[in-house]
Amino acid sequence: MIANKKTQLANIAKTVALGVELNFTIGDETKSLEGIQKTLEWAGREDDVDYIAIEVEEENGKKDIFLERFFSDTISGLSENNEEYVFGDADFNTEVFKGRILVSASSKQVNNQVWDLNKKVYLFLAVIFFVISLAFYFLARFLSSPLKMLRRTTNALINKQYKTQVITSRFSSVEVSALATSISALRDTLIKEKNNNEQILVNLEQLVEKRSQSLKEAQQVAKLASFEWDTESDKIYGVNEFFDNYANRKICNRVKTGEAFYSTVHPKSVNEIRSALLNLLEVGGEKVVEYKLHTTEKRPQFIELHARIKRENDSVMLFGTIRDKTSQVESELLKENFTKELEQEIKKKTEDLLNSENELYYRMDTLNQVAMVSEFNTEGIITYSNEHFCKVLGFNESDILGSTFTDLISTSQEEDASAGIWEDIKSGKTWRGELVVKTEQNKDVWLIVSVVPFFKVSREIDKYVVVSFDITDEKDLQHQLELSLNKERGLSDLKSHFISMASHQFRTPLSIIQSNSELLNMVIQKESESTLKENLLRSSERITSEISRMTQLMDDVLILGKIGSSYLQPNPKEVDLVLMLSDIKVQSDIIYPEGRHLKLEIVGEKKTAFLDEKLIRHVFENVISNAFKYSQESNPFVVLAFESDRIVVSVEDKGIGIPEADVEKLFQPFYRAENVGPAPGTGLGLAIAKEYVELNGGSIHLQSIENKGTTVTVELPLQLIDHYEHKPTSTEAHLEN
């Protein structure tokens, strides 16, 4: 019974070992440990096992208990050499560790099971022995009395004693009835014991069936089946069941013989598997082989065969387990491929990191050559400064290290600036600005500075890195430019004042000439002689025309002067450009009555612009007037296009055009193209138009081909953005002057 118990415990240990190996193929350590614990609980759920342990072997050969479970409260002093316990074990080997499974049960439990099983048998045999003895006793008594009487009678007849012999039974009917009752009771007892023994056999069969079912469940989880191969008769059992129940794909033929089994092996592995099994038959022991299943499916399937040899008399048996290892192999291949990809990615990242490191080194080297780099801790103490930093300030590195960063700031710097630095950088922000620091010679140096906080892993500030550039020369140049600009502004103001004064002084005599010209016209109207009257009217008209031209010239010069001195600022408001251009069209059609008119086309959805209406109207009136002036035989064409973020107005004419050499100069004041001929003009119209458009945040462009025509394009924003420091003032007074 002890030997059978050891075999049973060894089988349980093998099942647990197989469960451990399978659980470590999952790839998830947490799930693997949960699966192992469930396997141990399953193995110990019956009363046959008191203790299960997983013993692992470390690389140095030391053995240690990885996990153990006690299923009985009475276990104590557990040792493999302890005769009070029966042990069974099985080895396992995984990628994580290897070792063996120990399963134990108390010898007392085995003896109790033996006694419980045999107690009834012993009792049954004792009862049978007692009943048989009693039966033989009464039978002997029953048979011996007549024999004795017969012997006496025979002796009497031999001795010629012929008196009558009456033979009677020694037993009364009561005794016979009692004997029959005893025999009946014995029969009932024997029947009862038979029924009890049959129930015991049924219970044993149910227990065996339960153990078999548990084993089948474990095999299903592990996709495992047992097999036997009788090499003498060349018969294989159990392989077909494996392929039917656990293999993902069916094989073509039933596996009943050795050759049929080899036909399930992939042709490339047949010789290897055959040699391994033949070697096992010759040498003995056990062997584990892995091979690829021979199927017509594209996806391969892998099988693991665990075989042992058993010799009985002259026959040799191969027996063991066969299981589907496809998932594990695929996981290993996936892991191998992932490892290769990871290695390649790590190699690439390493190369990129080295390249980045080299690039960073060269950048830092370049930065150290042109920039002042320093570091200070959270207390403001300078802990590092590069060579360029020391060179600009004239300090030695030993003099700077340990000093306070704020001590370098010159007293000419505003205190608010240095205070603002600490407010920003202590909150984790980067501070950028200009600082005045003092050199060793106590001179002020202007620096443009960036202070960047560096953080620890805990998101606390570790230090501050300062990158600075010396802008002292730029500041000196800026100061010189400001002086020159102020001087230029003074000259511009003087010029504007002069233009304004000259314009006023010119307007007074022109007004007198205009008045006298009008009086002269009144006198001429009274003249009777027609020839003289006609000549005088012609002269008067020329005087009036020249007065208008001079007045317009002075207005343009005055406007240009105000623009140059920044006195003219835009006054934006909502402007309806469709209405504005339509009004200009009506006026143009009236001014040019000889059948000429302005063509106007509107493109896109109408939008309201936010511009200076006076300035923009002046621009379009000037450009459209030029189009009429320089195209005597055709009508100008205006396109107003509304786009998503701007408005585009193009004015096209088919006139004399502009020479290519003059196109870029037309926006300069007082410049006129060479081919304008006697057409009147001052050369200020486009210059003023350009300034007005730019004051409204737009742009103006001109394209022209000589003798073919000109196109002027004005691009305007939908809304004027105020770029000026002062609030815009009205331009109406300037235009009226």
CATH class of the largest domain: Alpha Beta
Q: What are the low-pLDDT stretches, counting only 5+ consecutive residues below 50?
A: 162-169, 722-737
In whole angstroms, the N-to-C terminal distance is 130 Å
Mean pLDDT: 76
| Sheet with the most strands: spatial strand order | 6-5-9-8-7
Give me the CATH superfamily of the largest domain: Histidine kinase-like ATPase, C-terminal domain
The main pleated sheet reads as:
5 strands, antiparallel
Radius of gyration: 60 Å
Q: Kindly state the number of beta strands.
A: 21
User: What count of helical segments does DSSP give?
Assistant: 18
Question: What is the total number of structural domains?
Answer: 5
CATH architecture of the largest domain: 2-Layer Sandwich
Could you say what the CATH topology of the largest domain is called? Heat Shock Protein 90
The fraction of residues assigned to DSSP E strands is 15-25%
Provide the helix percentage.
40-55%
> What's the overall geometry?
elongated
Structural class: alpha+beta
Short description:
By secondary structure, the chain is α+β, with helices and mostly antiparallel strands.
Note down, in words, how this protein is organized.
- This protein is an alpha+beta fold and 737 residues long.
- It has five domains: 2-111, Ribosomal protein S3 C-terminal domain; 223-324, 2-Layer Sandwich (Beta-Lactamase), CATH 3.30.450.20; 371-470, PAS domain (Beta-Lactamase); 477-559; 569-736, Histidine kinase-like ATPase, C-terminal domain (Heat Shock Protein 90, 2-Layer Sandwich).
- Helices cover 51% and strands 20% of the residues.
- The chain has 18 helices and 21 strands.
- The chain has helices at residues 2-23, 29-43, 107-158, 173-222, 239-245, 258-263, 270-283, 326-370, 387-393, 397-400, 415-426, 472-526, 530-564, 577-591, 613-629, 660-663, 685-695, 732-736, and strands at residues 51-57, 63-70, 85-93, 98-106, 224-230, 235-237, 286-292, 302-312, 315-324, 372-376, 382-385, 431-438, 444-455, 461-470, 573-575, 599-603, 609-611, 637-642, 646-653, 699-705, 709-717.
- Strands 6-5-9-8-7 form a five-stranded antiparallel sheet, with helices on both faces.
- The model is unreliable at 162-169 and 722-737 (pLDDT under 50).
